[in-house]
Amino acid sequence: MDYFLQQLINGLTLGGIYALIALGYTMVYGIIQLINFAHGEFFAAGGYMGVILLSYLAASGAGPYVCLAGALILTMGYCAVLAMAVEKVAYKPLRHSSRLSVLISALGMSIFLQNGLMLTQGVYDKAYPTQMTQGSFQVAGLYISYMQVIIVAVTGILLVALNALVFKTRIGKAMRASAQDKIMSGLVGIDSDRIISLTFAIGAGLAAAAGIMVGFYYGSVHYGMGFVPGIKAFAAAVLGGIGNVTGAMIGGALIGIIEVFAAGYLSSEYKDVFAFVILIAVLYFRPTGIMGENVDDTRV
């Protein structure tokens, strides 16, 4: 039983990271029906920017949690600006083109950003200052690391903030209106171009936060780290119901839990396979996902 609960905690930690990445996919799809395959590179860029900012802030003498908070905020801002630039260059000119053209542009931008990271940051892994969050404590026989607590706390705060933004603010109302009908929302004064750019920025900011969390969790980052987690997060978005914010959160948690349990009880060598098996099964048996029936009420 203790082993089961330990794996459940590990799965929720990993699932929170997938949920942050999946929200970017589902928000962009909800607005313009685009699967942004370059989204994983914002996650990787966030991981690298986190290394740079944490090193700089630590050298300035700031405390560990001040360093973490500062790095999170600045990295999310950096990736948000990067995503807005990518949207203006790669997607906006193709807004009225075929979906195949936009898809090819997304794949090309993914390759471009990944190679840009490789050329600017090098081909070798960069280590994270994990001494900031080392240590663990025991609760009822379960070992919980400080890093897991930080990941769950940061993920929870960001998810609550996103829900408040989408469902409690005028910007969120404009995003949901644009997702339902861009023409009618434009007639009532909503600038769809601004909303699309903002959606890209928010999604990339969440992915950047996930990149920092993964860097801490695994101890290093790599220029190609965005591909596999990006595909798993896409599977999470599809599982929850692509275009649905709540569904992306649920899907991310489920993918993380299933992956950890599969690695713990079956084989860690095939842990990456299960996310793709789930993706295939969902597309075959329930293409709308878990929350697909409620898309009109909750999509972004």
Task: Describe this structure as you would to a colleague.
The chain has a single domain, classed as ABC transporter involved in vitamin B12 uptake, BtuC (Orthogonal Bundle). Helix 5 (146-168) packs antiparallel against helix 8 and helix 6 crosses helix 8 (192-218). It has 300 residues and is mostly helical. The chain is 75% helix and 4% strand. The chain is globular. The chain has helices at residues 2-32, 39-59, 64-91, 99-121, 146-168, 170-180, 182-187, 192-218, 227-240, 245-265, 271-285, 295-298, and strands at residues 126-127, 136-139, 142-145, 220-221. The strands form two sheets. It has a two-stranded antiparallel ribbon.
Percent in helix? over 70%
The figure for the number of domains is 1
Secondary-structure element series: HHHHEEEHHHHEHHHH
What distance lies between the first and last C-alpha atoms, to the nearest angstrom?
39 Å
According to CATH, the fold-level topology is: ABC transporter involved in vitamin B12 uptake, BtuC
| Total DSSP E strands | 4
Overall, the morphology is globular
Order of strands in the sheet with the most strands?
1-4
- Sheet with the most strands, sense and barrel status: 2 strands, antiparallel
Which helices and strands appear, and what pairs or packs with what?
Elements (H helix, E strand, L loop, with lengths): L1 H31 L6 H21 L4 H28 L7 H23 L4 E2 L8 E4 L2 E4 H23 L1 H11 L1 H6 L4 H27 L1 E2 L5 H14 L4 H21 L5 H15 L9 H4 L2
Antiparallel strand pairs: 1-4, 2-3
Helix pairs in contact: 1-5, 1-8, 1-9, 1-10, 2-3, 2-4, 2-8, 2-9, 3-8, 5-6, 5-8, 6-8, 9-10, 9-11, 10-11
